[in-house]
């Protein structure tokens, strides 16, 4: 068995290709220029970059949520680059996503009960409603949410609680791979730590492979084994976190690290400049 | 205290929308001339409410129930609107959070900057324009002539924030309230903006109240810090002593809860529930 769960090679994604109704439309803009990524089973990788680096597009390409214009994606040994939608669908259960804004990704008109049991029944993971509910209760407990949440609507929960619903929804599908895109950027520090800790524990308990997209290198350091630094659609550095954070080889990585303000007294920090 | 610029004393406020829930509880804080003070806390801590109270832009639903905001010997809370209008945008100015919405999308940058100078400084149209150009150069915009003629959407987020910093310092105010001015920016741009604010502040000797949720930013740009929770001041002091020798368990837990790129195991310890429980009890939140 291949040690890698998800392998992407030479990924290129171009937006704005299609001609518009009037005239030729915008010229195509490439956002990823040949990115290679491999994610081992149970491994957590981080994808970090500033705005416009292509990190979100890369995540979406890995899940086949956007089409690649060039390159290859293999999931569990199967080439999924161009397979039709009806062949992807069975794989969707195994590749879950946790979104940045849980308010936007949870149906506001559905109770948490419906949001969490629905997919279990749809994918046939649970045979009936009672079984689905049992599984949901177990997972809710695991993410430290009371069963009373079941009858609530998303807007009745706090941001941190909603994000834990998002995590619960993903792990309920018993996935092999989870993509988490900026999932803690809107949270307060204390809530953020809670979500990160939970995610880290779950990935170990369930043997999940995870791609964690963030603009924040400190967050990546807390939960990832391996990191890819993206800049303008290219990987400028990749490696195990231990090595990259201790001695980054790309000037850009160095600059990103030097720009992060740490909560400690450092009188020279503000004036220190790192050229890229 | 001769060089006190701002003294907030016993400021209390309630939110009428939430059935009279206290949003500020007996807040005291002071700012000296030329001092940069961080106003820090998690969401709901009351940091923005304090900033808004100082600027006189509290929403109708928030009612001040006690206290004073003393700015250079005058109580801002007791002032009539015309008096406040004279102070705001001239002695006190704001660097807003979102450079996207703070500028008029339909007017050129130069015109927007010059307007303020004509209105608040009484400059002639020509003089205002020249000053605006100089200001854009001061905030290190590379091609100030071009920026003057640009509409906001033609500038990057970092550039727009520079324009707003120029606008805030244009009137040479004595107090600048910076309301999370870097949350929408990339880290490398954030650092430039922080450096710029500190630079402008030092040149003009301005007192700055820097609202943020990021203790890292506080550590790197502020002289002193006021930490809030639930509308109450939890900790207050010079930045170095608060960070290196925090007095309150909540402060310690909050510092420990933040992830750090230089420490692999940081950022995974949430503030313990006991700390919150004790804190709520101490403050009187049920």
Put the structure in a nutshell.
The complex is a heterodimer of chains A (276) and B (286). Chain A is an alpha/beta fold.
The interface involving the most residues is between: A-B, 39 and 41 residues
Q: Give me the number of helical elements of chain B.
A: 12
Tell me the CATH topology of chain B: Rossmann fold
Structural class of chain B: alpha/beta
- Order of strands in the sheet with most strands of chain B: 6-7-8-3-9-10
Radius of gyration of chain A: 20 Å
In the CATH hierarchy, the architecture of the largest domain in chain A is: 3-Layer(aba) Sandwich
Largest pleated sheet of chain A: 6 strands, mixed
How many DSSP helices of chain A? 10
Instruction: State the assembly state of the protein chains.
Output: heterodimer
Describe the main β-sheet of chain B briefly. Answer: 6 strands, mixed
CATH superfamily of chain B: P-loop containing nucleotide triphosphate hydrolases
Low-confidence stretches of chain B: none
> Ranges of chain A with pLDDT <50 over ≥5 residues?
none
Number of folding domains of chain B? 1
Shape of chain B: globular
Total number of distinct structural domains of chain A: 2
Average pLDDT number of chain A: 91
* Percentage of β-strand residues of chain B: 15-25%
Output mean pLDDT of chain B. 92
């Amino acid at each position: 068995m291949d040690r890698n769960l998800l392998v992407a090679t030479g990924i290129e994604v171009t937006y704005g290709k299609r001609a518009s109704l009037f005239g030729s439309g915008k010229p195509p803009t490439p956002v990823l220029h040949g990115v290679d990524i491999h994610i081992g089973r149970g491994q957590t990788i981080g994808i970090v970059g500033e705005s416009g680096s292509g990190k979100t597009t890369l995540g979406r390409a890995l899940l086949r949520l956007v089409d690649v214009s060039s390159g290859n994606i293999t999931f569990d040994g199967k080439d999924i680059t161009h397979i039709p939608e009806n062949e992807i669908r069975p794989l969707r259960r195994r590749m879950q996503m946790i979104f940045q804004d849980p308010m936007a990704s949870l149906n506001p008109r559905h109770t948490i009960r419906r949001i969490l049991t629905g997919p279990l029944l749809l994918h046939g993971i649970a045979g009936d409603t009672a079984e689905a509910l049992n599984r949901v209760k177990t997972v809710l407990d695991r993410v430290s949410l009371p069963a009373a949440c079941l009858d609530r609507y998303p807007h009745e929960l706090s941001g941190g609680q909603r994000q834990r619903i998002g995590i619960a929804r993903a792990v309920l599908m018993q996935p092999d791979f989870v993509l988490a895109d900026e999932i803690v950027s809107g949270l307060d520090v204390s809530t953020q730590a809670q979500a990160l800790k939970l995610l880290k524990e779950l990935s170990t308990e369930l043997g999940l492979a995870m791609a964690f997209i963030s603009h924040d290198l400190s967050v990546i350091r807390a939960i990832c084994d391996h990191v890819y630094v993206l800049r303008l659609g290219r990987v400028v550095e990749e490696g195990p976190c231990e090595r990259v954070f201790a001695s980054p080889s790309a000037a850009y990585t160095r600059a990103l690290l030097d720009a992060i303000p740490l909560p400690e007294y450092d009188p020279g920090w503000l004036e220190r400049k790192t050229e890229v | 205290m001769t060089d006190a610029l701002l003294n907030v004393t016993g400021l209390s406020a309630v939110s009428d929308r939430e059935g009279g829930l206290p949003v500020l509880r007996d807040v005291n804080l002071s700012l000296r001339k030329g001092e940069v003070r961080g106003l820090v806390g998690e969401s709901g801590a009351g940091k923005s409410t304090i900033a808004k109270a100082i600027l006189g832009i509290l929403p109708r639903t928030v009612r001040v129930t006690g206290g004073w905001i003393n700015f250079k010997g005058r109580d801002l809370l007791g002032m009539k609107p015309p008096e406040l209008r004279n102070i705001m945008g001239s002695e006190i100015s704001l660097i807003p959070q979102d450079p996207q919405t703070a500028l008029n999308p339909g007017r050129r940058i130069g015109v927007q900057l010059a307007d303020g100078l004509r209105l608040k400084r009484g400059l002639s149209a020509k003089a205002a324009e020249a000053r605006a150009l100089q200001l854009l150069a001061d905030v290190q915009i590379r091609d100030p002539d071009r920026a003057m003629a640009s509409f906001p959407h033609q500038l990057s987020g970092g550039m727009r924030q520079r324009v707003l910093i120029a606008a805030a310092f244009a009137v040479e105010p004595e107090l600048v309230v910076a309301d999370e001015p870097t949350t929408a920016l990339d880290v490398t741009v954030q650092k430039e903006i922080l450096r710029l604010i500190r630079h402008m502040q030092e040149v003009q000797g301005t007192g700055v109240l820097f609202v943020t949720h990021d203790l890292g930013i506080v550590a790197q740009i502020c002289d002193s810090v006021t930490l809030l929770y639930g509308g109450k001041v939890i900790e207050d002091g010079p930045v170095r002593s608060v960070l290196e020798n925090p007095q309150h368990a909540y402060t310690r837990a909050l510092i420990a809860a933040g992830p750090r790129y230089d420490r692999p195991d940081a950022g995974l310890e949430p503030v313990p529930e006991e700390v919150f429980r004790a804190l709520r009890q101490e403050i009187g939140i049920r």
